[in-house]
Design goal:
Blueprint: H1 2-16, H2 22-76, E1 79-83, E2 86-102, E3 105-109, E4 114-119, E5 126-127, E6 132-136, H3 139-189, H4 194-240, E7 243-245, E8 250-255, E9 262-263, E10 268-273, E11 278-285, E12 297-302, E13 305-317, E14 327-334, E15 346-363, E16 368-371, E17 374-381, E18 384-395, E19 400-405, E20 412-417, E21 427-432
Parallel strand pairs: 1-21
Antiparallel strand pairs: 1-20, 2-11, 2-15, 3-10, 4-6, 4-9, 5-8, 6-7, 8-10, 11-14, 12-13, 12-15, 13-14, 15-19, 16-17, 17-18, 17-20, 18-19
Length: about 425
């Protein structure tokens, strides 16, 4: 190739017939040498690039072969799976979130207005039925009671006096009767005139009228006594309203006012609750409350002590549900309530509505296309993966479903797998799911 280029160069030079110096000729030969060397380098570069491409293609083929082999191995080898197992005596519970409440709780206050002068209790104190909790200033009312008692005493004295008058009238009547009878006898014998007999008779009749009048005065006096005594009772009842007593044994939840405060009738001074009536109010989703019945067992967990579970029973189910939140109000009463309670504290309530004697339970995570009470699961039959559409029943609080229908005989449900699952793939059962 270099020779051809040199020949062409010399031919062109001869045609032009230009004077060429030795130096120029030397430079020409040098240029031709460089061109020959560059051509060889280009050839080597082309061959090197081709070799690199071949090696790259070969590497890709090797990698693809390894990947295909690994994929086939991973795809065809048995994978480990965990299957569901049957369980016994599984409780089915309904969850509700609510608060601690008191069935018997009262706001106490005075029925009359007055100034608070005595306080005998504060929040947290235990009181017994009849204990004096507070008193109002009552001097004026005590004076009214004293006045009423004096009036009653006067009425009783008047009644006594009226009774004495009756006795006197009775004596006078008997005397007049005796005189009248003697004079009538004398008049019949002619010893006295008829006028004297008639005067004696008139005196007797006057004595009868006096007795009737005295007896009437006694009746009036007795009525006055009853009225006066009733007035005493009224004033004493009013005086009692100046003292506030505990209506039942309980615990003071709150005290609203302090000594010296001016209270209006009906204004709340104390709030007390009966510790024996403490229960928990739980709000349960209507969709889950259909199986709840009075008397069912439950557990209550207080937010202040989440590790302690308090045994309880359903005591009441409200007839009216919450229209906004679509929740049913359920009250549960603890078997042994804690002595230290806090009204309004958050409580978690779990009500046991049923018990599954023997059941196959599948976690929700293992169910696909779940709708209503049906869904699809992976199953293991004869060592290979299959698929089944199951019908489910009860649901546990931890999200496991009871299988009631659709599982082929001898098959088990896959709940965990070490790899991707496909129908027909070989598997190895590594264990059963723990409850």
């Amino acid at each position: 190739m270099s020779q051809r280029r040199s020949t062409h160069l010399r031919a062109d030079t001869d045609k032009l017939q230009l004077p060429v110096s030795p130096q120029r000729i030397g430079r020409g030969w040098a240029t031709s040498g460089h061109r020959a060397t560059g051509a060889a380098s280009a050839t080597e570069a082309i061959m090197s690039a081709s070799l690199k491409k071949y090696r790259t293609a070969l590497s890709i083929l090797v990698v693809l072969a390894v990947a295909v082999g690994a994929f086939a191995y991973l795809r065809l080898r048995p994978i480990d799976v965990v299957v569901a197992r049957r369980e016994q005596s599984v409780p089915i519970a309904v969850f509700g979130l609510g608060t601690v409440e008191a069935r018997t709780i009262s706001n106490l206050g005075f029925e009359v207005a007055g100034t608070l002068v005595v306080l005998h209790g504060d929040a947290g104190d235990t009181v017994s039925k009849g204990d004096v909790l507070a008193e109002l200033q009552s001097r004026e009312q005590m004076a009214r009671v004293a006045s009423a008692k004096a009036a009653a005493a006067q009425a009783r004295a008047n009644a006594t006096q009226a009774g004495a008058t009756v006795d006197r009238a009775n004596v006078a009547l008997r005397q007049k009767l005796a005189i009248s009878e003697r004079r009538e006898e004398l008049a019949r014998r002619g010893a006295v005139s008829s006028e004297i007999s008639e005067e004696a008779r008139a005196a007797f009749e006057i004595a009868q009228a006096d007795l009737a009048l005295a007896e009437s005065a006694v009746d009036v006096a007795r009525e006055n006594v009853q009225q006066a005594e009733a007035l005493v009772q009224v004033e004493e009842a009013r005086l009692a309203k100046y003292t506030l007593n505990a209506p039942y044994s309980g615990v003071i939840v709150a005290r609203q006012r302090d000594l010296g405060s001016m209270l209006n009738p009906g204004e709340t001074l104390y709030t007390i609750a009966d510790p024996a009536s403490i229960w928990a109010l739980a709000y349960v989703d209507e969709a889950k409350s259909g199986q709840i019945q009075v008397g069912q067992t439950a557990t209550v967990t207080l937010r202040s002590n989440p590790s302690k579970h308090i045994a309880a029973r359903v005591a009441r189910i409200d007839i009216e549900s919450d229209r906004v939140n679509e929740e049913r109000r359920v009250y549960v009463k603890c078997d042994v309530c804690p002595g230290d309670f806090h009204l309004g504290e958050q409580a978690e309530v779990r009500i046991t509505v049923a018990t599954l004697e023997d059941a196959l339970l599948v976690p929700m995570a293992a169910v696909r296309e779940y709708a209503g009470n049906r869904g699809k699961v992976w199953i293991v039959a004869d060592g290979r993966i299959g698929e089944a559409a199951l019908t489910f029943g009860q649901k546990t609080l931890d999200g496991r479903l009871e299988v009631v229908d659709g599982l082929p005989g001898g098959a088990t449900v896959v709940v965990e797998a070490a790899g991707a699952l496909a129908v027909g793939r070989s598997v190895r059962i590594a264990g059963t799911a723990s409850p």
